[in-house]
Task: structure prediction
Amino acid sequence: MTRILKERKFSGTTDPKVQPWELEHRKVARRAAAEGIVLLKNEDHILPLKAGSKVALYGAGAGRTIKGGTGSGDVNERERVSVFQGMKNAGFQVTTEAWIESYDQIYENARQEWKRSILSKTGEGADTMDFFTVYSTTPFKMPAGDPIQKPAEGEDTENAIYVLSRIAGEGSDRTADKGDYDLSEEEHQMLADICAYYKNVVVVINAGAQVDLSFMDEFRNIRALLVIVQPGMEGGNAFADILSGKVNPSGKLADTWAYKYEDYPSSEKFSHNNGNVETELYDEGIYVGYRYFDTFEVPVRYGFGYGLSYTDFEITGCALKAVSAEKIRVTATVRNTGNVSGKEVVQVYASLPGGILEKEAHRLAAYAKTNELKPGEAQEVTMEVKMDGLTSYDEKRAAWILESGFYGIWVGNSLASAKLCGGIKLDQEVIRRQVRNLFPLKQELEEISQEASKTAKRAAAAAQQAKEEELTVLNIRGADIATETVEYKKNADLYEKEAMDFVNTLSEENLIDLAAGDPGKAQGGNLGAAGISVPGSAGETHRCAVDKGLASIVLADGPAGLRLMKYYHVNDGSIVSMPFEFSLEGGLFYDDSRELPGERYYQYCTAIPVGTLLAQTWNRELIREVGAMIGTEMEHFGVTLWLAPGMNIHRNPLCGRNFEYYSEDPYVSGTIAAAMTEGVQSNYGCGTTIKHFACNNQEDNRMGSDSVVSERALREVYLKGFEIAVKEAQPMSIMTSYNLINGIHAANNYDLCTESARNEWGFKGAIMTDWTTTEQGDSCTASGCMRAGNDLVMPGCFGDHDNLRKELKEGTLKIEDLRACIARLVSVIWKSNQYLQ
Result:
């Protein structure tokens, strides 16, 4: 096959004006943000507010709305719209502009003080890693602002909005303290004053994960509560769309909001809470998020899948039909019984029979979002429940099994509202998939457990209810469900023949170069900005075989959009190198007073909502549209792989990087990631990189923490989303995580990279490390990556090359393993947008 390399040009444009595609992409980001906003409370239908009405606006996020998290999840957009600006754009009369202007100065002073603090710790000439470590472990805290003053005599504003904001990012977990998970004393007093001075108060949560909401019980005139998460560059306009009723809220929570932090099953031992960030015991087992609260009947403030609308919906006519022995179809009719148009989410949960294994009370099995329904309009939605999604993992037999008995099918617009609408009766046990035991524990782990036979009792009760209510029960014969036995091939045998034929023409030195990025591209350091063909990109593959027709591809970070430098200069035909600091915080740490030589090129990218908010849309079609938009920007800037989506499980609200990830539920995570991948990869030669594979559920000591987790919990909860994304969408690449899993670094983990991803799931792409994974000590090496089936060490450093040469010479790294890894990388490069179609 003839492949013609594209001629690479300077990325971006020399025209500083807003480009037409920017305007179109902002519209998509705005729609996605609005559709993901969740309305949790709307007492007396206080919302929407009348257009043009007077509103008092307070809180750190009013004028300084947080668009996204910090670190590699950031985006250097052209501008961002705050809640304040969005409300003004929508015609609201904000009566507290003086307070917001005063806050701007307080904020700027705090930012400069934060900057000075970080620079004082790093000193001049600090390398990139040292600087980033200080930056990421010294998070900026939003100041509270001036005390609230009583409105002037005669002021007739009844409605006030308070925007509670929290910042988090990679490298540091949040804390269960005042000013983070809880309100600070200043914030509490501010909210108390607002509630004293205004009749109706609306609270807006502008944070990447849950915060304590106990103040909702204290202040009775908080009439409404909205969760906008971190909504991207168009967040303020999207919020105003919801506030004004231009858009009817249709978002649903992708996480459980507990009454108090201590209610989460991992709270006591999570990360720094117990003083041990070296070993993280996942002793809650499979009981993560709603699977814990629902199963152990722990009351919650707002449950999984919950979200209000400005209208009302009725879900009726639920029907079940067997498509085959391995799949059933669930249909339901949704009718808008209210007075305004809106969308609804139909959610299907399954309850499972007891017997050999205890099970969670309910498991999300399918969902669908309606079209925009006018008042009185109805729509029938169809969802498929696969029997594979109802399996449980039996560690003793190393098998995914379906136990005999009753499988209840529950339908509603949230977990709490779901009603039994029928079920499946399986006549005998089925071993659906025979695999191998992987990820052995190296220390004892005592997991929480239900009372004996509780699962069976729940299943019996559901079966009896179905009988009494004469609900449809589908009888499925276990003999009709096929058993699959996985064939396990060696790492060295997993490749495409054409790619291996090409690899066999390369020298050993070429193989070493291709295995470990291109260290020659690192600009004063190599963390997250090692690419130079596209300034600010995260890295590139090596150019050692360009003369043989093998392209070098660019990888760019930023799960909330592409993270590139907002501008750079070209002088005498060469790119002027910019320091890593320029790519952080919109250039806050960069002194741009110096004159740069040459011509300026602009690379403004669209900052979309963070992952959690995107998941709250429960709208796969919209997510595909967002992904297709990102793919368009990748093509525009010459990027092949987007280092996203992030899809680790929200195991605990304090994980500093939860904002990047989708949900506490693996089905939501997997299906949303699959939709995003399908959208991105609808653009020729563009691909996603699902990450961080796996168990990157804490940020403190993220490069050394050992996630101690049972094989069942790992497979059913922490790997399941990745499995769904791979099987449904085949992303071009996967990125391994920094942490260890049961004593073995993810990047060096054969069970993870080869046995799970390739042999069990059929992954066809390339697997890469996270940045500088192999530079943290001898326990994770470049050669270890190749042995594990981790194909690419990024961003590449000379030490990686030295290690590969050494182990090849000593025979501890086999040349056939290295060739297989490079063959897989070559296969991905050949599919890239660096070739003409």
